[in-house]
Design a protein that fits this description.
This protein is an alpha+beta fold. Helix 2 runs parallel beside helix 4 and helix 3 runs antiparallel to helix 4.
Amino acid sequence: MKFGPVPVTGAEGAVLAHSVQVGDTRLRKGVILTPDHLSQLAAAGHGSVIVARLEPGDCHEDEAARKLASALAPDPDAAALKVTQPFTGRVNLLADGPGVAVLDVASLQAFNHVNPMITIATVPQYQQMGAGGMVATVKVISYAVPGEDVARASQLARNAIRLARPVHRTAGLIVTDIPGGPPNEKGIASIRGRVEALGMDLCDVQAVAHRTETLASAIRHIGGDVVMILTGSATSDVFDVAPEALRAAGGQVDRFGMPVDPGNLLFLGTLGDRPVIGLPGCARAPALNGADWVLSRVACGIKTTGADIAGMGVGGLLKEIPTRPQPRAGRKT
């Protein structure tokens, strides 16, 4: 692509690089200049304009963005994505419902190394999405790029973006009561909101005493594809009431504690083929916390191991929440 100033008389068929005022109208950047445009420019006193002119083998920005997006998600329905029409070298990939973004990070990084004018920006790996949320945006920065670079980037990142939709449809929640403990209503409402944001139904809610044997019985009988436990007293050890209750019910604890703050006091386990999440106390509030990251992955059938949770620490320092009993830093007086 050639870029720079040219005489108006020789600009036909070129792409106008910058918007230009001509009388009462404005020629917008990106327009392909026609003889009528050139007459308007000359009448307005413009002797030259800055343009981009495609060379053999170049691909126009819109066509390049369309091809790149088609490679990233060749079957949008299968990837649970909606692909917008190209405009000014941009195509957006939107979530076609709730779910979690699944990205081939290495391929996307290779894509961005092909040509600085060919770019893709995405949400973080495993970001929870709502319907219509932007998962990624393809942007061709210049007015045209070499077609061979478009082909190379397309090959490197084929099928690199998809949305994992929830595979579990229902969830059950057990809350435990302790004398003088926090009220359950707000916590239940907050967790219901999380579940419903994933397109799931909170189908069973049970409140029981904060005792191992009582909680174990509730775990055995609670409904839902996913089981969640919110204790009236924070779980402070892998052998505390809630983890021990899961074991007593016949399940297992795979991980206690996570390097995400707020959200440290989470545990993850299974009961048969059902995932069990021991929620941290911060899940009573709607603010983002580590439980959101685990719940969204589990709901979408993404295998989540202790090693996965350990890896959440980088980027896991989340915004402080005002309801914390002991904030990270004391207030100045």
